[in-house]
Specification:
disordered C terminus; globular; 73% helix; ABC transporter involved in vitamin B12 uptake, BtuC
Length: 288
């Protein structure tokens, strides 16, 4: 029983990271139907920038702020690069963002080299409860993810700007007719995605390390988690991330750690075959 609880704690913590990245995919796709393959790179870049900033002597809170704001700026630049494309299809967005993802990886490799590194752990003491070792960083990851998830969901459901973004996603033509800027909504969605990716990167770095290529795995697993939620639901993205993290942890603990990364591929195949719209996605009305 203790082993199961230990695996669940670890799985929920890594699943929370996947959930943040999955929300980044969701907020962009739900507005513009763009699948942003640079989302994982946002997380990797945030971790590396935060490590550099703390090494240079900045206090941890200030280093985290600089890191996240820098990633938000990069996310906005990615959107501006994509903006001139007039007929953006999902396939074209995959091809274009894949190229941008490769460019970001190359830049990180040149700036930081091939070695992975970790940010200093956030303040707090590890402890043991019921025989289960709980790291303070796990609590930071789970707690911050919970707060951010609630904040993003409230933003979309309770604020006028959030409702405008949802209008652009559900009825883009009608949104234009009432004066909502669809292009502005797309830019804002990339900014939010950059914020989510940056938070994921700095939270994960003390435990899972940051490297020039670490965004590949994070992006893939975040995409799988978002797919579980149908790529349009914030709550679905969070649930998908936690489910995927727990499945990975259980497989690594009870089967073989070598199969850990294969779980995401298996889940993706099952979802695409059994329910392409996402396991947690509700039936939706076609756009007009």
């Amino acid at each position: 029983m203790t082993d199961l609880l230990q695996l669940l704690v670890a799985g929920i913590s890594v699943g929370a990271i996947y959930a943040l990245i999955a929300m980044g995919f969701t907020v962009i796709f739900s507005v513009s139907e763009v699948i942003n393959l640079t989302q994982g790179e946002f997380a990797a870049l945030a971790g590396l920038i935060a490590i550099t900033a703390t090494t240079a002597g900045l206090p941890l809170p200030l280093a985290l702020l600089v890191s996240v704001l820098t990633v938000v700026t990069v996310a906005l630049l990615v959107r501006l690069v994509l903006a001139p494309v007039k007929r953006m299809t999902t396939l074209l967005s995959i091809m274009l963002t894949l190229g941008l993802s490769t460019a970001l990886k190359a830049a990180m490799l040149l700036l930081w080299g091939p070695e992975g590194r970790g940010l200093d752990p956030f303040p707090g003491n590890d402890f043991v409860v019921w025989g289960v070792s709980v790291r303070a960083q796990y609590l930071w990851i789970i707690g911050v993810t919970a707060v951010v998830s609630v904040a993003v969901a409230a933003f979309y459901e309770r604020t006028l700007t959030g409702k405008a973004l949802r209008a652009c996603a559900e009825q883009p033509t009608a949104a234009r007719l009432v004066g909502i800027s669809v292009s502005g909504a797309g830019l804002l969605s990339f900014g939010i995605a950059g914020l989510l990716g940056g938070i994921a990167g700095v939270l994960a770095s003390p435990v899972y390390f940051s490297a020039w290529d670490s965004g590949l795995a994070l992006g893939l697993k975040g995409f799988v988690a978002a797919t579980l939620g149908g790529l349009t639901s914030i709550r679905g993205a969070v649930a998908g991330g936690v489910v995927l993290g727990v499945l990975e942890s259980l497989v690594a603990g009870y089967v073989d750690s070598g199969f850990r990364d294969a779980v995401a591929f298996v889940v993706l195949i099952v979802v695409l075959v059994a329910r392409p719209g996402g396991i947690l996605r509700q039936h939706s009305v076609a756009r007009v």
